[in-house]
Design goal:
The chain has about 210 residues and is mainly α. The chain contains seven helices and two strands. The longest helix is centred in the middle third of the chain and has 27 residues. It is globular and about 55 Å long.
């Protein structure tokens, strides 16, 4: 969520620096997200998931979520590269932002829609409401992480170190969040290998663990 919610702030500020028609406002790019969600959910279900399954890859919920986190990281690598172009004085058209929006939205679909269902299925009946509240709490934690990161780069010592890398503060933050997401995806994948999936969909479901989902 620390990456996803910044599309309404950091990405809009980047769009302000990009070439676009006079009538087009940077915030209008936000309309891509809901449009892509409506396209990607049925596309994944009807086309992408069956295709991957036919290739012999079993797409468990945990694998989809891990891939979604990685796609979010990839989106931030793309915006980071575009920021390098902008910092170098190059003219960058705003249509370039379609690619990171597509990657980020794909990540959102893989994590959010899958994660909500998975979290509900893993919680006993008495805990389902609590688990759903923790899902909302994760959004808060993600936004607090962004706040902490933004406060940190205002420190003179941190700013000096960033300047030593040859990157602007904005570009550095973009690559920082990309690296953070990719590390999170790796940690998630390693944990998922040993996680025992449970089935609490039904009220009478037994409290027994199934084989680890990989």
């Amino acid at each position: 969520w620390s990456l996803f919610d910044q599309k309404a702030s950091t990405w809009v500020l980047q769009a302000d620096q990009m070439a676009k028609p006079a009538w087009f406002q940077s915030s209008m790019m936000q309309a891509l997200n809901p449009a892509l969600v409506l396209i990607l959910i049925p596309f994944n279900k009807v086309v992408l998931y069956p295709l991957i399954e036919r290739l012999g890859v079993r797409l468990t919920a945990l694998r989809r979520m891990g891939a979604g986190i990685a796609f979010a990281g990839a989106a931030w690598i793309v915006v980071g590269l575009m920021q390098l172009w902008l910092d170098g004085g190059q003219k960058v058209d705003i249509t370039w932002q379609v690619l990171p929006y597509a990657l980020l939205t794909l990540g959102e679909v893989l994590v959010s829609t899958t994660g909500l269902e998975f979290a509900y299925s893993q919680a006993p009946m008495a805990m389902k409401g609590v688990i759903m509240s923790f899902w909302s709490l994760s959004v808060t934690v993600g936004n607090l992480w962004v706040l902490l990161s933004n406060v940190s780069v205002r420190n003179d010592a941190v700013t000096a170190r960033i300047a030593g890398t040859g990157l602007s503060v904005t570009a550095f933050q973009m690559f920082f969040f990309a690296g953070f997401a990719l590390l999170a995806a790796l940690a998630f994948a390693l944990y998922a290998r040993s996680y025992g999936v449970r089935d609490y969909y039904r009220v009478d479901a037994p409290d027994t663990a199934m084989a680890p989902a990989r």
